[in-house]
Write a structure and sequence with these properties.
Largest sheet: 5 strands, antiparallel
Order of helices and strands: HEEEEE
Strand content: 35-45%
Shape: globular
Structural class: alpha+beta
Helix content: 10-25%
Radius of gyration: 13 Å
Low-confidence stretches: none
Number of helices: 1
Strand order of the largest sheet: 1-2-3-4-5
Distance between the termini: 21 Å
Number of strands: 5
Length: about 90
């Protein structure tokens, strides 16, 4: 079973492979949930390149949720706002 830090690292690698900015670590959270019938880590955060320049401003920006399979460590989807994308 994947530990929380391993799930966070999977998201870091997922973003880097797609040439996206990393998440702001100080405001990133992780929790276990069942997503699409999979035991998953849900990593929630906002991008380092978001326009806010103070930590408190990040709470005005809706975070992106990343879904990491707790068994395999693969990122299998994400949710931005009300739009959810699940990879097959």
């Amino acid at each position: 079973m994947l530990a929380e830090e391993e799930a966070r690292e999977a998201v870091r690698q997922f973003l880097a492979q797609r040439h996206h900015a990393p998440l702001r670590e100080s405001l990133t959270t992780a929790e276990r949930q069942v997503i699409e019938d999979r035991d998953a880590w849900v990593i929630s955060g906002v991008s380092e390149d978001s326009p806010a320049d103070e930590d408190w401003m990040y709470f005005l920006i809706q975070p992106t949720l990343y879904f990491v399979d707790a068994a395999t460590g693969s990122v299998f989807g994400y949710q931005a706002g009300s739009s959810r994308t699940i990879f097959k």
